[in-house]
Amino acid sequence: MAKQLPFILQGRYFTVKGEIDQDGSVNASCQFCPNKTVKGHIHATTNFHKHLKAGHPTTYTEFIATNSRKSRKRKQSEIRENVSDETENETVKGEFFGKKLRYTKEQANQLIMDYVVTDM
Ligand SMILES: [Zn+2]
To answer: Which parts of the sequence are annotated with region: Disordered (predicted)?
Structure first.
């Protein structure tokens, strides 16, 4: 499948049934109910959330915890990618405010400036 599925539809909680529509609407079967299909949308997964919350509260709690960990990780790697695109010769490597990132010295200085300003 070419489209990137949201975590909730990647098979652990729901599996996608059939094709995903052009507009992103999708049918998915619940992994915890024998014959339950939930209609939803790959960009708006509210219906799947609702089903887990109502039908499988323990699983839902686990899902929320796992999902938020995952999205934090994804954000950090996006930052890293964006930065390395612009990186030229001179880089600053290593820990930077607790994140492992690479910056040019100019970018690093700018970040320090921003950091100082925002925190005052
Ligand atoms: Zn279910």
So the answer is: 65-88
**CB of 34 closer than 8 Å to CB of 71:** no
pTM passes above 0.70: no
Q: Could you tell me the distance, in angstroms and rounded to a whole number, from the CA of residue 62 to the centre of ligand 1?
A: 14
92 in Cβ contact with 105 (< 8 Å) = yes
- Ligand 1 centroid–CA 33 distance in Å is 4
How many angstroms separate the Cα of 85 from the Cα of each of 35, 59, 103, 111? Answer: 47, 39, 10, 17
pLDDT of residue 98: 59
**Interacting residues of 5 by C-beta distance below 8 A, sequence separation 6+:** 16, 42
Write down the pLDDT at residue 91. Answer: 52
